[in-house]
Design brief:
Layout (H helix, E strand, L loop, with lengths): L2 H30 L6 E4 L4 E4 H13 L7 E2 L2 E2 L6 H22 L8 H16 L3 E2 L4 E4 L1 H17 L7 H6 L10 H19 L25 H27 L21 H4 L2 H23 L18 H32 L6 H27 L5 H8 L10 H27 L5 H17 L12 H34 L5 H19 L14 H19 L1 H10 L11 H25 L2 H7 L3 H30 L8 H37 L1 H4 L2 H4 L2 H8 L1 H25 L14
Parallel strand pairs: 1-6
Antiparallel strand pairs: 1-2, 3-4, 5-6
Helix pairs in contact: 1-17, 2-7, 2-13, 3-4, 3-5, 3-7, 5-7, 8-18, 8-21, 10-11, 10-27, 11-12, 11-14, 11-16, 11-22, 12-13, 12-14, 14-15, 15-16, 15-17, 16-17, 16-22, 17-18, 18-20, 19-20, 20-22, 20-23, 22-23, 23-26, 23-27
GO molecular function, one term: heme binding
Keywords: Membrane, Transmembrane, Transmembrane helix
GO cellular component, one term: membrane
């Protein structure tokens, strides 16, 4: 059996087995998700909340921005508190104060330490005891706890309204005045907060840990690391070391194949782009425009960590509150990178097949219009929702779904899926002849096409969670989109495209590219598919998720640990022939992708992947550190590299190809990203890490830490990196403007392409 055939069989086995495990665990999550009670009542039978209150509260949370204003179970934004940890800490404080006044006629802080310890023991007994009856659907709480719940309901009603006394707190949390307009909706929001906190402190039936595996860390209420957290973290580290060793051994045994005879001239230069390929210029212009807008919004969002309602004294939050700017900032990251990659797919398909289908240009133009409508429509809907112009049902459909990276209203989400399916149809009809060509690149072409199918279809996983879906299940499907769609299949797509481009340029043998792509895909997906579960350790899932997620997320890092080989090999290609200088900066962006794969995705990713690490630092700025290093460093740099490669093929002259602008853009973007990550985001995360260990998770997300002198200084230290990064974006935009507006308007006649 040849290596290629063995790799193909291994790839099929990995995919089938991994998805079988993922779906099986999804079924288990569904069965063991924290129940939503029909009624929450006191011992005397008084109704505190109903199921409708909790479900409406979840819709209210979605409408205000959801994950973009604080977090639930550790998932969401970083300036406002984690509302789960915040509720639990405040409930414990109020409960202890009430009990101390009742038993000792004194405040809790004034009684003896042994008396405090006794009350804290009773607190844990009251809060951790599971009094939910699955037969009746009724959850019973003590009278004291019901009293505290009412006090908390009043507190959150004031906080999310416009009570002047709460204005300093809202500013510290980067909340706009009147975050939730309706008093009824504010009460419902408290019901949802209660349910999330109840799941985080209540022990599962017949177990000694909570529905969220004892997250968040708060020793006062008995939330400390479980044995599964510790054991599987150690196992993940051991497996990482074993995996890196095995892969290093494999690399050492590889035979070095001689390079092909290099072409005397650029094989792509002078080939006339087809009509549909020339129409792709607008995709790349759009991507760069969205990128610039994302940079601006990122700077505003970061500044809100210092001035929660102002931008250098300007009351910007009245128009663009933090929850809006962060929504747009994270969503535009997906939009601009996806636009660049979709444009690449539409460019590479006819280049591979040498075939231009009828009406392909029309389809490309229609798809671009559809994408623009979805981008602008979803952004407008999100603004209207957060400004409370919609009721909670309309907000769900047209406004804000409240879940990070799939924030856009359900209608826009469906339209985006339709656009992806149109893209898949366009790619399919153009690439179809290449799928039947019996040449050396057939395996990689099929891997590329399979990744296109996955990109078109897997975004639809987000539609499996609905308006009232249990949050544990909603998170499960959300991470199918964020991890599998973005981090999985786009990665496979990019690996295949780069290999095909290098083969087409005559720099790599087809046989070598086939083996490398198939092997890399198998290795990556082995950890990447099941590794999705590392996002779900504490989202109301059973401990089996910790076991599977920790082990396979460690395997995700294995190929990244040796990514330097790829970086060096790619870097060498820039000087292999004289004409390769035309592709120098595209290749340099591919090298940057390899660097950030190691640093952003690998090193900073593994920092938060082991269960015991994530237990303490989920939702701190350590998460933002990984997100910036991986999303922009890997997918953003790769998107720019792919666009430049396509534009090199679209440009029939070197006259306006300005390498100086690309040089300044490359170094500004990378040095700026390094600055914001290592001068600000990571140090803030480390400060918070110490705060969690010393005081509990709630404290690390409190204004005492977020707005401490040290943390605010570290936030200001992000400014140089932000400015440098922004300058890099401007240089890139200037390059595109000079190239596209000066030369690509001079359209040339179609000329059939030569297939690979």
């Amino acid at each position: 059996m040849t290596k290629q055939k063995f790799s193909l069989i291994a790839l099929v086995i990995v995919c089938v087995t991994s998805f079988a495990i993922l779906l099986s665990l999804g079924s288990e999550i569904y069965r063991q998700a924290p129940p939503i009670p029909d009624r929450v009542v006191t011992l005397s039978g008084e109704v505190v909340f109903t199921k409708e209150d909790i479900q409406n509260g979840q819709l209210v949370w979605r409408s205000m921005g959801g994950h973009q204003l604080g977090s639930i179970w550790g998932h969401g934004a970083y300036v406002a508190p984690d509302w789960t940890a915040d509720w639990l800490h405040r409930e414990a404080e109020m409960w202890l104060e009430s009990a101390a006044q009742y038993q000792f006629s004194s405040s809790f802080s004034a009684i003896e330490s042994y008396q405090q310890a006794g009350l804290e023991s009773r607190l844990r007994e009251d809060m951790r005891l599971n009094q939910y009856d699955p037969e009746t659907g009724v959850l019973v709480v003590s009278e004291r706890r019901a009293q505290v719940i009412r006090q908390l309901q009043a507190y959150y009603a004031r906080l999310f309204g416009d009570d002047p006394a709460m204005q300093p707190t809202r500013e510290a949390y980067a909340m706009k005045e009147g975050t939730i307009a309706s008093a009824e909706n504010r009460e419902s929001l408290s019901a949802f907060f209660f349910w999330g906190a109840w799941a985080a402190v209540t022990e599962r039936p017949n177990e000694n840990y909570t529905y969220t595996n004892n997250w968040p860390y708060d020793p006062q209420i008995g939330n400390t690391p479980t044995s599964s957290n510790i054991v599987w973290s150690i196992m993940s580290v051991v497996l990482l070391i074993a995996g890196v060793g095995a892969l290093a051994w494999y690399h050492a045994t590889l035979k070095v194949h001689p390079l092909p005879k290099l072409p005397a001239s650029d094989p792509l230069f002078g080939v006339k782009p087809t009509s549909s390929q020339r129409a792709l210029g607008k995709y790349f212009i759009t991507a760069v425009g969205l990128f610039l807008l994302q940079i601006v919004l990122g700077g505003i969002t970061a500044h809100y960590a210092v001035e929660g309602q102002n931008f250098y004294g300007i009351p910007l939050a009245e128009i663009l509150p933090y929850s809006v700017t962060r929504t747009w900032h994270t969503q535009l990251a997906v939009f601009w990178i996806a636009t660049a990659w979709l444009g690449t797919g539409l460019y590479i398909a006819p280049a591979l097949s040498g075939y231009e289908p009828k009406f392909q240009r029309l389809g490309v133009n229609v798809l671009w219009v559809a994408l623009v409508i979805v981008v602008l429509g979803s952004m407008a809907g999100e603004w209207l929702a957060i400004q409370q112009y919609f009721d909670i049902d309309t907000s769900y459909w047209l406004g804000h779904q409240g879940q990070e990276y799939i924030d856009l209203g359900r209608i826009w989400q469906i339209l985006l899926l339709a656009g992806l399916l149109i893209w898949l149809a366009l790619v399919t009809r153009a690439i179809k002849p290449a799928l039947t060509h019996n040449n050396d690149m057939k395996p990689v072409v099929w891997v590329l096409y399979a990744s296109c199918v996955a990109i078109g279809l897997f975004y639809g996983a987000g539609l499996f969670q609905g308006k009232h879906t249990n949050l544990a299940i909603a998170e499960y499907w959300r991470w199918w989109v964020v991890h599998l769609w973005v981090e999985g299949f786009f990665e496979t797509f990019a690996t295949s495209v780069i290999a095909l481009m290098f083969v087409r340029l005559g720099l790599v043998r087809a046989q070598s590219a086939n083996s490398a792509v198939l092997f890399a895909t198998v290795v990556f997906l082995t950890g990447g598919l099941i590794g999705t579960l590392h996002h779900l350790y504490f989202t109301g899932t059973p401990t089996s998720v910790i076991a599977w997620g920790s082990v396979f997320s460690a395997l995700e890092v294995v190929p990244l640990a040796l990514i330097g080989f790829e970086a060096v090999e790619t870097y060498r290609m820039r000087k292999m022939t004289s004409w390769m200088s035309r592709y120098k900066w595209a290749i340099m962006f591919f090298v940057a992708t390899a660097f950030w794969n190691l640093v952003g995705a690998g090193m900073l990713g593994f920092l938060i992947n082991p269960p015991i690490a994530l237990y303490y630092i989920q939702g701190l700025n350590t998460t933002a550190t990984h997100a910036h290093g991986a999303f922009m460093g890997v997918y953003g740099m790769l998107g720019i590299g792919l666009m430049l490669t396509c534009l090199r093929g679209l440009s029939t002259t070197t006259a306006v190809w300005d390498d100086k602008l690309l040089k300044w853009s490359f170094w500004s973007l990378n040095l700026g990203l390094l600055g914001m990550v290592f001068m600000s985001l990571l140090p803030v995360g480390i400060v918070q890490f110490f705060s969690v260990i010393d005081h509990g998770y709630w404290y690390a997300r409190s204004p005492e830490v977020i707005h401490s002198e040290l943390v605010e200084t570290l936030v200001w230290l992000r400014v140089p990196g932000d400015i440098l990064f922004g300058i890099g974006g401007i240089f890139l935009a200037l390059f595109f403007a000079k190239l596209l507006f000066s030369k690509l308007k001079q359209s040339s006649g179609d000329k059939p392409l030569t297939a690979v």
